[in-house]
Amino acid sequence: MSRLPGGLARRLPDKDDVADRLYGLGWATVRTLPEPAAVALGRSLADQTWKKRGKGVRQLEANLRRVVPGAGPEELARLSRAGMRSYLRYWMESFRLPAWSERRIRLGFAPDGLDHLDRPLAEGRGVILALPHLANWDLAGAWVTTELGIPFTTVAERLKPESLYDRFVAYREGLGMEVLPHTGGAAFGTLARRLRSGGMVCLVADRDLSASGVPVDFLGEPTRMPAGPAMLAQHTGAALLPVTLWYDDSPVMRGRVHPEITPPGAGSRAEKTALMTQALADVFASGVAAHPQDWHMLQKFWLADLDPAKDPAGDPARAETAGARTADGDGEGPAEVGP
């Protein structure tokens, strides 16, 4: 195979540059489409992606097989296709959110269980909203800052290239969020300060396969979830409130704020963290089981799917490095979703 001339090779964009340009194109163009056109485009892209059965789609089906163990091949195919449509709906909405009016944001989300949120806020306590990768967590966040008028802090994993990370940060800050970089344990102290002052923190917290993840049972199989939400609640006295989201056949996303998960009265901090994280996993699992097509988990999730040789929990050196990663998960939602 002939090699490219040096000058031409230097001018060709690398993979990171291509990714950055594609995201930039999405934010620049999709937001200008009429909403019906954006919906149709998202569905078309979802169906094309589903038919190609790439790695992400195959992993989605493997995860759905555990969520709906009685599903036959036809039902599983239906669920995975619906899952990709839900996933692309998330992207179409996210590209368009910065251009939505305040009224459109307010009308775009209809949660129940807000009394669970009102109580700690009335008491002047901090609030931790913990969510799984269900439906559109960015829309839920924009609704909180717009409809409730409550600013909050979240965490984003640093991406490569840096310009892509900057796009995500600018996008979320434009929706009214304070975004902290997920670098080691540095974010934990800032989150704790926000909570002690009565602020709100929102964390996507259903997956942490690093060595610092807390072992939990999720729909009958072991996995690990981040310790951060439970640890923050214990450190600060903030209310830990699980939130689940889902789509129906309307343009409005649905959601539910669940009752507070409180620290147990006895036990060590590690034992309390384990029990609280399992309680969080149980709520998340109920939401995923009720709306499996809206769980955007296109990566490995259960420990049984991991290569034992690459599991950081079995490597003391990697475990020590991962030990500070407690504010959120390992930063990885589905690779295609971003931070």
Structure described in brief:
With 339 residues, this protein is an alpha/beta fold. It is 48% helix and 15% strand. Helix 3 (35-52) packs across helix 5 (73-96).
Question: Structural class given helices, strands, pairing?
Answer: alpha/beta
Strand order of the largest sheet: 1-9-8-2-5
Largest sheet: 5 strands, mixed
Percent of sequence in beta strands = 5-15%
What pattern of helices and strands is seen along the backbone? HHHHHHEHEHEHEHEEEHEEHH
Q: Uncertain segments of ≥5 residues (pLDDT<50)?
A: 1-13, 316-326, 328-339
What is the number of helices?
13
What is the number of E strands? 9
Shape: globular
Using the CA coordinates, give the radius of gyration. Answer: 20 Å
| Terminus-to-terminus distance | 37 Å
Overall pLDDT level: 85
Give structural attributes.
339 residues, 13 helices, 15% strand, 5-stranded mixed β-sheet
Give the secondary structure arrangement, pairings included.
Blueprint: H1 6-11, H2 15-29, H3 35-52, H4 55-67, H5 73-96, H6 102-107, E1 109-112, H7 115-122, E2 127-131, H8 137-148, E3 152-157, H9 162-174, E4 177-182, H10 186-196, E5 200-204, E6 214-218, E7 221-225, H11 228-236, E8 239-247, E9 253-257, H12 269-290, H13 316-322
Parallel strand pairs: 1-9, 2-5, 2-8, 3-4
Antiparallel strand pairs: 6-7, 8-9
